[in-house]
Amino acid sequence: MSGSIYIIDGARTPFLKAKNAPGPFAASDLATAAGAALLMRQRFAPDQLDEVILGCASPSPDEVNIGRVVALRMGCGHKVPGWTVMRNCASGMQALDSAIANIQAGRSDLVMAGGVDALSRAPLLFSDAMVRWLSGWYAAKTAGQKFAAIRQFRPTYLAPVIGIMKGLTDPIVGQLMGQTAENLAHRFDISRTDMDAFAVQSHRRVLAAQERGHFDEIVPLIDRDGTVYKDDDGVRRDSSIENLAKLKPFFDRKYGRVTAGNSSQITDGAAWLILASETAVARHGLTPLGRIVDSQWAGLDPAQMGLGPVHAATPILQRHGLGVNDLDAWEINEAFAAQVIACLRAWDDADYCRDELGLGGALGRLDEARLNIDGGAIAQGHPVGASGARIVLHLLNVLRRGGLKRGIASICIGGGQGGAMLVEALP
Amino acid sequence: MSINYRHLSLVRKHDPDGIAWLYLDRAQSTTNTLSRDMLDELAGVFAALEANPPKGLVIASAKPAGFIAGADIEEFTRIDSPQAARDLVERGWELFNWLARLKFPTLALIRGHCMGGGLELALACRYRIVVDEPGTKLALPEVMLGIVPAWGGMMRLPALIGPAAALDLMLTGKSVDARRAKALGLADECVPPRVMENAARMLVGSGQRPRALPLMQKLLNGPLKAVVAASARKQVAAKARREHYPAPYAILEIWQKFGGNALAVPAGHPASLEAIFRSPTAKNLVRVFFLQERLKGFGKGDGKSGDFAPRHVHVVGAGVMGGDIAALCALSGMTVTLQDQSVERIAPAIARAAKLFERKLKHDARQVRFALDRLIPDPQGHGVAGADLIIEAIFENLDAKRTLFADLERRARPDAVLATNTSSLRIEDIAGALAEPRRLVGIHFFNPVALMPLVEVVRGEVSDAEALRRAAAFVRRIDKLPLPVKSAPGFLVNAVLGPYMLEALRCVDEGIAPETVDAALVAFGMPMGPVELVDTVGLDIAVAAGKALAGSAAQPPKRLMELVAAGHLGRKTGQGYYRWADGKAQKAAAAAVPAGLADRIVAPLLAATRRCVEQGVVADADLADAGVIFGTGFAPFTGGPLSYSPDSGKTMTDELSRPSDGAMVNAG
């Protein structure tokens, strides 16, 4: 059944850092703007897509099936089905994998898949106590009942629950994502300086790539006031070990090592790819940019979720008989500097490879010159649902730019999972 | 009992509640109009129902297009005497009074347009239900044709919604949508189409008392009429002079003094039907209405291929003109790619579009969002390959346009319409850069795009007829009026405006104050004085257009050149012939207007219009009148420049309209 899965094209929005207020675009605005511009440059019409699949970790209440909303807003017409997938930080990669599965099963030939999140618009929720009080208030009919209800009210009920904090807390082990990164820092003895140095490198690489125009996958956005958004705006020119050293630990206060500066940023953004079967390529006369050769999901202890890439990418390496440095480029999503460093150390650790991965020994030290060469989420931000699609898109961009052949994009997933995809560039 | 009607059908038997359903369905027409035979059949229905009364009567339309478009305007044109006018009024007045007197409850179920006589019919029913759809529009637009809503509208509308709101509708002719109609009290209910029949059945059988006016409104429609009348009269006077437009004044007086009954006005009264019939205004405005209908007909399919309905338009050039064209297309439901050299150049057009959408779609945030979704910034021009129609609106440079079109032709679909918005270059010169020059047509818009109703569709020497038809069809799709013109300097509109503005500026050079010149032309009936228009368009553009139209040998007005040299370019720089503040020209009081001033300034326009007809720029005199009215705002009550003859007795010689002369103004 399984033919090749071709990548026809892709595009994303600039990643816009949340500035403690709702950003200029809702999630569906972001996905629609990038997607409509992407579709406009194709040889096929939007209504010739077989389906649209969008990953999103936190769609707003008025666009819960955001995949369908965006398909309609992009002008795909009533007849193109649209749906939404959710796998936390890998929602965008899950959308790609769902497209692959449907193409391989012969259900679809031409699919637009990607991810989006507008974390700046994450809702504030009423606390459970407030909701209980409100239901009593609405049930109160008489003045006496209302008066009794008012007497029961406590001002603390008004304290909102910050939706995004709920989302970033593991519901099984009760730890914040940053605390799971602290677990890894502890386990692999990763110092604060190691993390901060990694973060500085991420900013420098993004700046260098911006200067060379290496983010041509970005579709600029214009808001209703005529403001132009062209670039990922979380990157900092002033990022340095000294500046980062001033920040206080955020997740394990006072005694921890993970800070806001060596973690990914809270950001809004969307990323899309167009995937096609052999049949669709022939039917529409398309010129593929690359292929997705393989993909893999893995589960692990939620408290160690940052090692997800190790668990997802290793089976791909084994299936294809590859060592970590047989790949020309790697994208590992930078949820936390500690987490990416931990992945590298785990592969280089014979005990870990033997005990956790069932290998004979260490896989070796991944050459950092091949990893995230244009930086990553620490500088660009991590709009949760979009990141998995972004790293696949950008990996292909890196491979094609360098005349390279193969790479792996991999991402850790809150809740203790990892996802990985093996990508091959076509000449 | 079964009677066969031609224009309607009456369904009684099948309704379990004993309600009669009357469906209007005018034979051989897509819309319902209240022609004489339609009114006669309605009278027959009322008689039959009185003889055998139902529990209630629901009047609805069997046409998908709407409820009733109004009276049959064709019949107006055949009125040849004041008595015939009186007869026509009497027929509808009596019929609708009969409808209002029927003993059983009546209800108008209004879906789609409900205009003029159609609304008067609905007003005579006990209840009205409007269907909540964008196409539902209610209006008494008679005033726009120079006539009055004499079939009961002037009596019943003020009594239903209060006199201030009613006069506002009757004096402006503007329409209200379904929700507004409900809010005004014009409709009893506003419902979605899925429940409209059920709502009609329940309401007509409800026994509910008809809506009554609040006490204050009752007083204003009774003893305090003078209060409302005074303020309405002031508003009318600010917009129209009685000698030009007698109808709004007549509406006011018939409501105030004659209980809304036009038949009660004695023949000698200025608000009488005789006076309205005698004034040429109504005749001219009805003519303008038909001219407008004629323009709307351009671009209709030949039946074989159907109407051209572009889904994707690509616009090159995101300046004010290109950006506004793109916004209008997106507003009209098309997908639009807007190209310019950088995204920063496109951004202001998106911001302007957002404002336009928010204004036009004010009740519907989702529709605003959809319109913005359809407007796609396209700095790389990817949209060219898939577009059904491509409009170029870049700066007026021949080489740039030739290079652009050569590239567009290579990348566009072979069946895509290629159009330029040029106002001063020859279509033929641009088309020469194409492998197939016949593909290029002109689609010439006027500023401000959102407001100006006319668009010139320009035929170059070799332009393909099918491409021209498609261009005209496109113009209709964005709800503008297409005027086919031949490629010639200034086409029609700028060619007639140029000499007119030149003459106005000459008068200023001669020492007449700009205020006086403008006052003379506003009094003549122009929407804006010519000097203010020059300031609005921009003095630099006026000079450039003048050169392009007349060649550089011409002698431009002295004051114009001085102002341009000083950098005073009009409204955009805050200073031109006038000082501008807050978007308004700061004018001193006008002096007494010298006799014949307006005629002197209008004369070159009239001559230029005649010349355009002689040279075949437009196909005939009617189209010239239509183009000049809708393109320049030339006083519609005159019927247009070619049907206007000045009363001053002066003959207009070509001496007054030297075509070789210089500075002209380009409204586009």
- The first-to-last residue Cα distance of chain A is 25 Å
Q: Which two chains touch over the largest interface?
A: A-B, 20 and 25 residues
User: Percentage of helical residues of chain A?
Assistant: 25-40%
Give the CATH H-level superfamily of the largest domain in chain B.
2-enoyl-CoA Hydratase, Chain A, domain 1
Major beta-sheet overview of chain A: 10 strands, mixed
CATH topology of the domain at 177-214 and 290-425 in chain A: Peroxisomal Thiolase, Chain A, domain 1
What average pLDDT do the residues of chain B reach?
A: 91
Fourth-level CATH superfamily of the domain at 177-214 and 290-425 in chain A: Thiolase/Chalcone synthase
What is the highest CATH level, the class of the domain at 177-214 and 290-425 in chain A? Alpha Beta
Shape call of chain A: globular
Task: Spell out the helices and strands of chain A N to C.
Answer: EEHEHEHEEHHEHHHEEHEHEHEHHHHEE
Total domains of chain B: 3
Protein name (chain A): Acetyl-CoA C-acetyltransferase
EC number (chain A): 2.3.1.9
Keywords (chain A): Acyltransferase, Transferase
Domain Thiolase N-terminal (chain A): 5-278
Using brief descriptors, characterize the structure shown.
heterodimer, A: alpha+beta, Peroxisomal Thiolase, Chain A, domain 1, 10-stranded mixed beta sheet, two-stranded antiparallel sheet, 18% strand, globular, B: 668 residues, alpha/beta, 2-enoyl-CoA Hydratase, Chain A, domain 1, Rossmann fold, N-(1-d-carboxylethyl)-l-norvaline Dehydrogenase, domain 2, 3 domains, 6-stranded mixed beta sheet, 26 helices
